[in-house]
Amino acid sequence: MAATTAQVCEWAGYIDEEFVFAEFPAGSRVLDIGFGTGEQMRRVSARGCRSVGLEIDPELARKGRQAGLSVCRAQAEHLPFGTATMDGIVCKVVIPYTDEERAVSEMARVLRHGGTARVSYHGSGYFLRYLLADWNWRRRVYGLRTMANTFVYALTGSRLSGFWGDTLYQSERRLRRYYAASGFEVVEARPSTGFAGAPVFIYHVLRRT
Question: Strands 198-199 and 194-195: what pairing?
Answer without folding.
Answer: antiparallel
